[in-house]
Amino acid sequence: MQTNPRLHIRQVPWSNPVGADLRAAQQAELDARFGHDDHEAGPPPSEADTAVFLLAYDKGSGKPVGCGALRLLDEHTAEIKRLYVLPYTRGSGVASSILAALEGHAHALGIASITAEAGSAQPDGRHFYESSGFTAVPNFGPYAGMEHSYCYAKPIDSRTAGHTAMV
Known about the structure:
seven-stranded mixed sheet, alpha+beta, Aminopeptidase
């Protein structure tokens, strides 16, 4: 997976205020897309169940441009959560770079598979996962039985794990 060399991606605590601002921006965008604020199946991610939380910064401006997390589902599986890129940077490789970094962390943690979910109001998210090597799978966990959820999975090993420079 190609990464954007203009980015600096680093791991931070879930409680990081920049990360909280990006997650709030994502939730506001999802509220607008879905037309309501009740669009998350199951409990939202938290510090307790988030194995890795990453922020992406533009090297030129130093401004944050995106984030993403891994939520552990079990000892071999993690779910991509809060993968978000500021609208003005979309299409520039920010999301792919964050995903590559998350895959690298998943591999280092011994995760064998990563999963993801995108809703019916997120065709761009569904296309992103499909074009990033994820395969559609039956809805799992809190998404089971939800007709507007689309679930995906991707195996992680030394050949498939994305790699990018991190600090």
